[in-house]
């Protein structure tokens, strides 16, 4: 294939522009590879962990082809770090689900949750919430109470199952605590999952990364009944942690960009059909 870059013109450029538009990018389809097209190409490359040089060679084109062939179901996850979001500007033809941070540890509740969630409900978008687990000096029961007190109705149509975020903590000392107390931390996660399932009637999802699971959770295989939301920032098929055979959701970048949202955002792809997503969301 021809390499497309700044000042390229013609049918191939027009096809590239249409492909990027089909993937949700705002771009003029005019056959002219100008500054606008170069800017969108760089954004696409950053979103997909490619070298952001603004040149469409074989690597960039292969990712475009892959995304178009797979017809993926995309989602994002957000928190107060994303600030004010113009939900009316998001391309909901591309983004089909959103997870919001609800809580962390014993007392922290995300102050943007209710604003985000009410907008998503207004727009009838599949939506869910997650709890970031703290492992030291906080019981599972206290964290369950904090999460459930966020006021999300998990029986409502369009609401995805609760999520437990199991990952690196905010300091090396806290990560070292997990390393030195693996069995205690694994049991704390099990207790949270069991109690939340009993309270909501929904089987929770586990969010984690393979390297965290391997190093800190001793590659535990005791969680296989819970759907896996896997963080893996590369375009190759991610390595599945011990205990699972596949993922339900793949978070493939933390540096995505979308219209309506300032700065970077985590982007995800759902492993299944639209009917599968609807079923997961009580729809």
From TrEMBL:
PROSITE patterns documented for this protein: GLYCOSYL_HYDROL_F25_2
Under the heading Pfam families, the entry gives:
Glyco_hydro_25, PG_binding_1
Membrane spanning segments where? none
Q: Which domain of life is it from?
A: Bacteria
* Annotated ranges, domain Peptidoglycan binding-like: 10-62
Q: Which GO terms describe its biological process?
A: carbohydrate catabolic process; cell wall macromolecule catabolic process; peptidoglycan catabolic process
InterPro entries referenced in this protein's UniProt entry, alphabetically = GH (IPR017853), Glyco_hydro_25 (IPR002053), Peptidoglycan-bd-like (IPR002477), PGBD-like_sf (IPR036365), PGBDSf (IPR036366)
Which is one GO molecular function term here?
Answer: lysozyme activity
Would you identify the family this protein belongs to, as annotated? Belongs to the glycosyl hydrolase 25 family.
PANTHER family per record: LYSOZYME
Task: Please identify the protein, giving its name as recorded.
Answer: Lysozyme
Lineage, broadest ranks:
Bacteria, Pseudomonadati, Bacteroidota, Flavobacteriia, Flavobacteriales
């Amino acid at each position: 294939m021809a390499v497309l870059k700044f000042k390229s013109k013609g049918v191939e450029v027009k096809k590239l522009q249409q492909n990027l538009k089909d993937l949700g990018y705002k771009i003029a389809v005019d056959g002219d590879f100008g500054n606008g097209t170069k800017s969108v190409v760089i954004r696409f490359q950053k979103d997909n962990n490619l070298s952001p040089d603004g040149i469409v060679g074989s690597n960039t084109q292969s990712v475009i082809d892959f995304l178009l062939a797979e017809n993926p179901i995309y989602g994002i996850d957000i928190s107060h770090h994303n600030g004010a979001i113009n939900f009316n500007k998001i391309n909901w033809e591309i983004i089909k689900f959103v997870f919001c941070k609800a809580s962390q540890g014993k007392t922290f509740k995300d102050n943007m949750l209710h604003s985000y969630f009410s907008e998503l409900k207004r727009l009838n978008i599949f939506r869910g919430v997650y709890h970031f687990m703290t492992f030291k000096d906080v019981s599972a029961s206290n964290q369950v109470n904090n999460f459930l007190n966020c006021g999300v109705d998990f029986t409502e149509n369009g609401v995805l199952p609760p999520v437990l975020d199991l990952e690196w903590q905010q300091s090396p000392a806290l990560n070292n605590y997990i390393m030195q107390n693996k069995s205690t931390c694994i049991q704390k996660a099990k207790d949270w999952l069991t109690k939340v399932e009993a309270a909501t009637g929904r089987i929770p999802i586990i969010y984690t990364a393979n390297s965290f699971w391997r190093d800190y959770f001793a590659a535990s295989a005791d969680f296989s009944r819970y759907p896996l939301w896997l963080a893996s920032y590369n375009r190759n098929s991610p390595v599945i942690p011990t205990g699972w055979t596949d993922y339900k959701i793949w978070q493939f970048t933390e540096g995505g960009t979308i219209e309506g949202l300032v700065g970077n955002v985590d982007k995800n792809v759902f492993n299944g059909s639209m009917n599968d997503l609807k079923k997961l969301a009580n729809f």
